[in-house]
Amino acid sequence: MKENLKPKERVALAIQGKESDRVPVCTLSVGITRKVIGISFSEFSINPELAADALIYANHIIGDDIIFSFIDLSVEAGDFGQEIVYPENTTAHPNYDNPLIKTPDDYEKLKTFNPKISPRMSNYLKTTRLIIERCGNEYPVVSFVYGPLGVLGMMRGAESIYNDILEHPEKVKTALEIVTEVLKDYTQAQCDLGVTAVCIDTLPAAISGVSANMWEEFEGKYVKVLGDIIKNSGCVVANHGCGTRPYFREVKKWLNPTIVSFADVPNDCLDMTEVKDKYGKNVTLMGAVSTDILYYATPKEVIEECWRQIDLFGKDGHYILAPGCEFPPNGNIANARAMVVASKLY
């Protein structure tokens, strides 16, 4: 079929469960986009104008149907006071030797603030606004919020916070309430910009994170508040969870996303075929091309793998071809382009 739809139209049909001229693609290219305009990781992380340029110009080359506005997972934690390291050649991250929350007593020391004027979150909002102003008429723009349990983990360390959930649950919940208050304002600010969708990252909602019951208690009820803000603002709720054996059922219960981005078979499914049969009729599945393949394989091999994924998930719509997680930040951008070529040639 001749390709004659705009990206917004193509993605809308996929969400409605209708087949279009081809399967829409979102390569989740983020850090790699810095190469297109010749900037470092640190410049991408700190300068909102350069980040917007990188994401937009890279998409001219790649040809994604969705522009995914994302910087790194430490944006929210940095504004709570966590020290962030900005390497020149890899993604920004917390200083793991200097966590903001050093003891369980530190949870109660967190304070709320206005994300519209805090350093990193306000910069992220500016990046997203610039993308919408320049591309929002043609492309769906999807923004990003790291879930409250994930944000705490960036300030405490994953292993420590999971121990604290068992030994100091009320102190963790106090901090979750504070973080969620800030994320509510942050989420609303993104919706107010006019994004098509807001993606809530629930990384701990997987067997590689916490138990399903524990996730419901320590993040599910908090992300529900964020999901309600997105829906009430007329935006689409998206979810990303790249953990091992993610909890689709529990995330659906609390967040009820329209789009689910994932990397692995959910814990209540035997294989990817069951994922399509069980969830692909009323949820738009986004993934799950291996990031290892995207990093190590040739463009031809990437195209062939994408064809296999389209065979598996593409029938009857409700599918967006995508990696299971961010496109490898130091990978080959030709492999991102290969994903779009695969859809066009399928």
Radius of gyration, taken over Cα atoms and rounded to an integer in Å: 19 Å
The main β sheet shows up as: 7 strands, parallel
How widely separated are the two ends?
A: 10 Å
Q: Strand order of the main beta sheet, please? A: 1-4-5-6-7-8-9
Q: Please give the share of residues in helix.
A: 40-55%
Helix-strand sequence: HHHHEHEEHEHHHEHEHEHEHHEH
Helical/strand content category:
alpha/beta
Number of helices: 15
Summarize the structure.
With 346 residues, the protein is of the alpha/beta class. It is built from 15 helices and 9 strands.
How is this structure best described in words?
The protein is α/β, with parallel strands linked by helices and 346 residues long. The protein is 49% helix and 9% strand. It is built from 15 helices and nine strands. The strands form two sheets. The chain has a seven-stranded parallel beta sheet with strand order 1-4-5-6-7-8-9, sandwiched between helices. The protein has a two-stranded antiparallel sheet with strand order 2-3. α4 (48-62) crosses α6, α7 (148-156) packs across α9 and α14 packs across α15.
Top keywords for this entry?
346 residues, two-stranded antiparallel ribbon, alpha/beta
Write the layout of secondary structure elements.
Elements: H1 7-15, H2 34-37, H3 41-46, H4 48-62, E1 67-68, H5 75-80, E2 84-85, E3 93-94, H6 119-135, E4 141-146, H7 148-156, H8 158-167, H9 169-193, E5 197-201, H10 212-232, E6 236-241, H11 248-254, E7 259-262, H12 272-279, E8 284-286, H13 291-296, H14 299-313, E9 319-320, H15 333-345
Parallel strand pairs: 1-4, 4-5, 5-6, 6-7, 7-8, 8-9
Antiparallel strand pairs: 2-3
Helix pairs in contact: 4-6, 6-9, 7-8, 7-9, 8-9, 9-10, 10-11, 14-15
